[in-house]
Amino acid sequence: MKELRIIGLLITDRIKEAGRTQQILTKYAHVIKSRLGFHEVTEDVCSRIGVVILQLAGTSAECNKLEYELGQIGGLEIQRMVFCL
User: Fold this and answer.
1) Closest residue by Cα to residue 85 from 60, 68, 67
2) Per DSSP, what are the bridge partners of residue 51?
3) Tens of pLDDT, residues 27-69
4) Does residue 3 have a pLDDT over 90?
5) pLDDT of amino acid 4
6) What is the 3-state secondary structure (H, E, C) of 17-54?
């Protein structure tokens, strides 16, 4: 059965974890169909908290590897939605 998987990432310390997170997202770019990221920015401050939403398009095994590697990053929370098609 085919699935549509969306994962949400809450990065609690962007300054500390953004580099490692970006490395993993780049490594698995072939399974990321859509990516949306945002954080609060004002004239005075750039939020340390960020949110990334990913729509994945790879095999279940590839998506699981991506989630596992992201899960190894401290300060990163992952939530998943899976729709069976």
Assistant:
1) 60
2) 10, 38
3) 999 999 999 998 776 667 777 888 999 999 988 999 999 999 9
4) no
5) 93
6) HHHHHHHHHHHCHHHEEEEEEECCECCCCECCCEEEEE
pTM value is 0.86
CATH at 47? 3.30.70.1150
| The token pair that represents 73 in the structure block | 């990053």
- Is residue 63 within 8 A of residue 54, CB to CB? The reply is no
Domain that holds residue 55: 3-84
Please tell me the total count of domains within the chain: 1
Identify the bridge partners of residue 38 per DSSP, sorted by sequence position: 51
The CA distance from 54 to 49, in Å, is 17
